[in-house]
Write a structure and sequence with these properties.
Organism: Pedobacter ginsengiterrae
Number of strands: 2
Subunit structure: NDH-1 is composed of 14 different subunits. Subunits NuoA, H, J, K, L, M, N constitute the membrane sector of the complex.
Radius of gyration: 21 Å
Catalytic activity: a quinone + NADH + 5 H(+)(in) = a quinol + NAD(+) + 4 H(+)(out)
Family: Belongs to the complex I subunit 2 family.
Strand order of the largest sheet: 1-2
Distance between the termini: 19 Å
Order of helices and strands: HHEEHHHHHHHHHHHHHHHHHH
Helix content: over 70%
Pfam families: Proton_antipo_M
Shape: globular
Number of helices: 20
Length: about 450
Amino acid sequence: MNIIITISITAFIVLYAGLFKAKKALLPLTVVGLLTALGFTAAAWNGNAVHFGMMQTDNFALAFSGVCIIGTLLIFLLTQNYFHSKSDNIAEYYTLILFALAGMIMMVSYKNMAMLFVGLEIMSVSLYILAGIRKKDFASNEASLKYFLMGAFSTGFLLFGITLIYGASGSFDLDKIQAYLVDNNKAISPIFYPGVILMMIGLCFKIGAAPFHFWTPDVYEGSPTLITTFMSTVVKTAGFAAFLRLFADVFAPLHDFWVVPLIVIVCLTLFIGNVTALFQKNFKRMLAYSSISHAGYLLFSLVVLSANSENNVLVYAAAYTFASIIAFAVLILVKQKTGNDSFESFNGLGKKNPLVALALTVAMLSLAGIPLTAGFIGKYLMFLNVMGEYQTLLVAFAILNALVGFYYYFKVIVAMWFKDGAEIELSTPAQYKVVLIISVAITLILGIYPAIILNLI
């Protein structure tokens, strides 16, 4: 609870600092607030406290909260000169991101369906505004409108599913719903089953899984790049944590019922995400479609439920988050210099900016799942989780799709190191260097020694 309170208070302090024109204080205040929240996260480890019967700060919630806070902190370090060029009122950017983070902490800690909905909406409303915050940019306006309409549509599915589950079980509490499912003296109500499917659809919208992914490319492309970074990393991590808490724990007794539609969603997500990313000429749009494919890999953790499912998702989410932060950070630098984000903008980048190009190379290798990177460990754990019986066919299908991913990730590497271009020299602020170094270090450390977080939960 202290984590949410700290983040919320920080958001209000930053907002008032903006009103008093204290622009230089915004980033330091935010960093201090997030570090304090991270300290509360560490202090609560193994506490397993329950707050008002609505939230539970167990190790699952704390581990994912830690990833979300660290990811957000790194993204804030990328704000140097970025928000200043977009608006004079930059405090609203900071405040909305912090409120979105507070909503995400609720999503990974909920113990009651009502808290899941509240957290989801706090996060979503903040993101709707952030996506369209560039009022004079038509692409940003379009992104916000599409995100709002599709978000409202998916919320309807989620609420209808919650309503049916409440009607069948008589409770919003996760423990009571689970007890209802395992009670042998009661027959499960027929309305419970469509409730589960509707909740699956609603959460698939939020994480960008196919065929509920149509909003993702346009919203990611039209939003400010730093907001896209936030949505495709931290937001996705929180969404999967909420998905996993509900289906791996509460709905586990009905696994045989909902695993079939889930496998269909996994296959569609992998195929559509990878094949469509293959034909993109825009780096930012490619990252948007590749994020769809990564949603498919993350859903592997639910195809076969095991004691390691939660840890596997944590490793994969961390690997994807930090590699994507590197990719978007370099994209921001390149776009500020060249004015566009096509693959050609990266031509010759390695000759004038070897360290930046090396960081992006590590990120692309991790996203592709090459050994000695965190991405390889994440994919390996996901594939290992579903091996056996008919699931071997699913793993073979996923590996074929991963091979497709090699092509579009390596396009960037080839452009940087083997193609001639303008050989632009990037101006890399110190904060960007810090973010790149930290993210590369985490990516390589998790790839070489994943045991650091492998058994964390």
